[in-house]
Amino acid sequence: MSERSSLVITLLKGLLPFLLALFLTMMMQLPIGDGTGNVPVPHLTLMLVYYWSIHRPELLSVPAVAAIGLFQDLLWGGPPGLNMIVLLVARVILSNQQALFVRQSFGVGWAGFVPVVFLAMGLTWLIVCLYYGMLVSMLPLVGHGLVTLAAYPLLGWLFGRFDRFMKPD
Amino acid sequence: MKAPIAKTSKGLLASRAGRWVFAGLLFFAFILLILGRVNHPAIDKMRAVASDFSSPILGFLSRPVDRMDAAFEWAGSLTSLVAENTRLRAENERLLQWQSAALALERENLRLRALLNAPELASKRVATPRVVGVSGGPFVRSVMINAGRVNGVARDQVVVDELGLVGRVFAAGRVAARVLLVTDLNSRVPVRLQRTGDPAIARGRNDASLELVFLPPGAEPRLNDAVVTTGEGGIFPPDILLGHVDRVDGQGVGVRPIALLDRLEFVQVIEPVSSLLKIRPEEQGGNAPAVNTDPQAKDAEPKGPEAVPQSGPRSGAL
After folding, report:
1. Contact flag B66-A31 (C-beta cutoff 8 Å)
2. Interface residue A115 vs chain B (CB under 8 A)
3. pLDDT in tens, B9-62
4. Which parts pass through the membrane (chain A) (predicted)?
5. B288-304: b (≥16 Cβ within 10 Å) or e
6. How many domains is chain A partitioned into structurally?
7. What is the Cα B268 distance to its own chain's centre?
8. Beta-bridge mates of residue B228
9. Does B46 touch chain A if contact means CB atoms closer than 8 Å?
10. Is B217 helix (H, G, I), strand (E, B) or coil?
11. Do B6 and A164 touch (CB under 8 A)?
């Protein structure tokens, strides 16, 4: 393989988590089940940011996380900037706590996701209340958070497979 | 199972550049929140670009999902075919009686309108797009449709399904648009109780039902009362069925929307009522409003978007 083609492949591999995040953002828009969103959809991008912030932070830069959050906000139609802030805060906090999770079992990784989800949902609720100038019900967020936690083992496993595929042998 | 091994890194805020990047992006996000709060057009444009980008992909991805949903529905319906057939026969008989009553009333209505020279607001259908995406957020109730400016779709146009009111367009891209559902927290629809004529505002609550607010003192809503649009406010044409009262208690009055918001597939986009009252260019000389004042003049209307059939969502009277 020539040097140029290996460089292109390396670049593409570096972009893959970002592209995967954009794809997952669109997957969250698919009219699966209850179309109005009464059935909570897992926060796929939060899972992705969590996973890559711990295992391969160099492949998910802060501006990339901001772009993912912004894209999600624009597609969802909610307060613009909401998920941008939530994902950015999660990314920065995780970058400081990364040493706690490295080389730990999958179960520990899952347990570590619990406070991240709580934090993200709490921050979302706070911003939404401030944005609308009223106290909104926390119930939809609880469902959203629980579904996100429940879906993590499957998505975490898929991210792991994806990550191994991207690593140079 | 062990997670993949990663190199540990120092926190992103350890370096000065990292802190500046983080602060700059947070600042940008707060600016976006403020612009969103004041409904700045730049946000609509950004939404439109995002919708245009994702609409073809979502359209492609949603096909197998739709087919799977249809297959599950078909499999589920097999178990209740006989009961369903009996129910439909009875319903068909009842509807035929209603149809003859409705036709007689329609004829009478047209005659009276002609006698009184009362204008009729005939809603114009702009497009019949497919729902390709929904909002996955817990605080948003919106859907994406695969029709945009090239199809004549614009902001504040009204969206209905075969049963009733769905919502309104709040961001129109070139080939896709976003529709705010009536159940969204931001949705406000001027309505009236069809039985009594009492006006109110139907406010979305981000769940399956809406809430009636600003009902006049003395109003006595009852369970199953039909709730229709009033036509006030310049957006929603009058007499579109929104839903039925499903809760009357000390906490307020709830309305369950009639539209199939939980399984929208195809919807109709119609002109807002404000555009129906505008003067057509060819009529500017005579100052005639673009409303159909003559029931017999329907055939003489110019070619273009079709009028929404009266038997569609505007059937709340029956």
Report:
1. yes
2. no
3. 556 666 788 889 999 999 999 999 999 999 898 998 898 899 888 888 888 887
4. 6-25, 74-94, 106-133, 139-159
5. eebebeebeeeeeeeee
6. 1
7. 9
8. B192, B241
9. yes
10. coil
11. no
